[in-house]
């Protein structure tokens, strides 16, 4: 038979165990999308073009038609024409052949931004 003291200790231990199992997971940890990643309205000029410029259009990559990959991502028309290739390459695992950007990765929010832009018709906005 348990004494009052043992019951109290048992109760405290049980409460501690239950409280310790609570977590404060955020949206990014649960779903891979940062809480501040608002993709409700995605613009090519304000959202997508800067991602491409910062990660793809530099010497040896997609800076001009003579680039190593043979694609120029510096214009809307080129990005629009290559949107399906872009979607495929940014969603590959980092260690998979053909993953882009080479030697790095986009953030979850950047990938989501480009994906939403393409899914919404890849408008020149």
Protein topology:
Elements: H1 4-20, H2 27-31, H3 44-55, H4 76-81, H5 83-90, H6 108-119
Sum up the structure in keywords:
125 residues
Kindly summarize this structure in a few lines.
The chain contains six helices and no strands. The chain is mainly α and 125 residues long. Helix 5 packs antiparallel against helix 6 (108-119).
SS strand fraction: under 5%
pLDDT < 50 runs, ≥5 residues: 18-28
Global structural class: mainly alpha
The N- to C-terminal Cα distance equals: 74 Å
Query: Can you count the helices?
Result: 6
What's the average pLDDT? 78
Helix proportion range: 40-55%
The figure for the number of domains is 1
**Outline type:** elongated
Number of strands: 0
Radius of gyration: 24 Å
Order of helices and strands: HHHHHH
Major sheet description: none
Write up this protein.
- By secondary structure, this protein is mostly helical.
- It has one domain.
- The chain contains 6 helices and no strands.
- The longest helix is centred in the N-terminal third of the chain and has 17 residues.
- The protein is elongated.
- About 9% of the residues have low confidence.
